[in-house]
Design brief:
By secondary structure, the chain is of the alpha/beta class. 51% of the residues lie in helices and 13% in strands. It contains 13 helices and twelve strands.
Length: 388
């Protein structure tokens, strides 16, 4: 095969992949614009169990608890369940003081290690909490989150439709006071807009456990081990897959209401950020959902073609021209969809760092993709080895 023929084949394959990617993101842009909705009437007020599994969150718990106390939701219909996953700080003491100061609230605090000896991890903590939950609907969030005073009311309005069994909603990063954290926020927004559009179009394959709600009775109908407890991470994605498989794609909805979003923090260091992404990627080998696999591969191959053409350009200038075309296609469509998402949720200022994200993201995707399949990682003070 001559060099010119190889270049032509490589260019055709790369352009084909980029056109598929361009079309997919353009579709996300259209769906988001068509499906996004404003605040619905908050007339549906069922009982809710708000569940928080935590580990080493002493510094973050006070802000979460403040958000809970400010909720415009009937306290008689609210059950608060906290599960401590063997914290090494004083987070449990923070909760006990909160419980003593707010005896009018229905608060349950569990210690995972005492309730289930030998069990560790967020999934085990959530399973314990759900076993002890009594209310009609479950709302999951994390200890490092905060939200609007109408959060709970907004989160459960879509359940007025009895066919809806699970509702995802946005998780945004705040307090992004550095370029590094702003870049994380932009990348997070790209995940959120994809989650919103695909879920609204009845092709749900992404969710975020920091802002997830579902019908308790529906959860009880799921097959055993809906969380895939043998996996270290992926409580949200595997639970979503279980709901989708059992009740169908149309049973899962996305709440676009701005009052239903949750704010959390960006990772403080590059090492923590890489550990988070390795943790996310490590579960990819267990994906069984067609769209999870197909879209993951599309994004991976699109970024492989970008990086390959860039480096090949040092050998043959034609590849530089190909890289310029591929990069321009990706840059323009990604910026378009991020712009509409950012305007909707008031994060326009983050777009200033988008060019930097666009340049570095392909390399990061490849790095995290490789690391997530081969390297161990640390999370919440624990070391995890890859499962065989």
């Amino acid at each position: 095969m001559t060099e010119s023929v190889f270049f032509l084949l490589f260019a055709l394959v790369s352009l084909f992949i980029s056109l598929l990617y361009f079309g997919f993101i353009a579709w996300i842009f259209l769906v988001f614009n068509l499906k996004k909705h404003k605040q619905s009437e908050q007339s549906f007020v069922p009982s809710i169990s708000l569940i928080v599994a935590f580990r080493n969150e002493e510094k973050n718990l006070p802000k979460l608890l403040e958000s809970i106390l400010k909720q415009n939701f009937p306290k008689s219909k609210l059950e608060l369940i906290f599960v401590d996953d063997s914290s090494e700080d004083k987070g449990l003491n923070v909760l006990k003081k909160f419980e003593e100061s707010n005896r009018y609230l229905n608060i349950k605090v569990f210690e995972l290690g005492k309730e289930n000896a030998g069990k560790i991890g967020k999934k085990q903590a959530l399973a314990l909490a759900l076993k002890n939950a009594n209310n009609d609907f479950i709302v999951l969030t994390d200890a490092d989150c905060s939200f609007d005073s109408n959060f709970l009311l907004s989160r459960i309005q879509l359940f007025k439709n009895s066919k809806i069994k699970m509702v995802s909603a946005p998780v945004l990063l705040h307090e992004t006071n550095s370029i590094f954290k702003k870049m994380q926020a932009v990348e997070n927004n790209s995940l959120m807009v994809s989650t919103a559009a695909t879920t609204a179009a009845y092709l749900p394959f992404m969710s975020n456990g920091a802002n997830l709600a579902f019908c308790r009775n529906a959860y009880l109908e799921l097959p055993e081990n809906a969380f895939r407890l043998e996996e270290h991470s992926g409580d949200d994605l595997f639970l979503l897959s279980s709901f989708k498989k059992h009740f169908g794609s149309k049973s899962i909805a996305f709440e676009f209401d701005k009052k239903a979003l949750v704010f959390t923090h960006a990772q403080a260091s590059l090492q923590a950020f890489l550990n988070q992404r390795i943790r996310w990627v490590s579960k990819a080998k267990s994906y069984v959902d067609f769209w999870q696999i197909a879209i993951s591969l599309l994004v991976l191959f699109q970024n492989i073609s970008l990086v390959s053409s860039l480096f090949a350009g040092f050998y043959n200038q034609l590849y530089f021209y190909l890289f310029a075309v591929l990069f321009a296609m990706k840059f323009s469509i990604d910026f378009l969809v991020l712009s509409v998402f950012s305007r909707w949720y008031g994060q326009n200022k983050l777009l200033k760092v988008y060019p930097l994200v666009a340049m570095l993201y392909p390399f990061f995707i490849l790095l995290s993709g490789i690391a997530g399949h081969f390297l161990p990682y640390q999370w919440k003070g624990r070391k995890y080895k890859l499962l065989s």
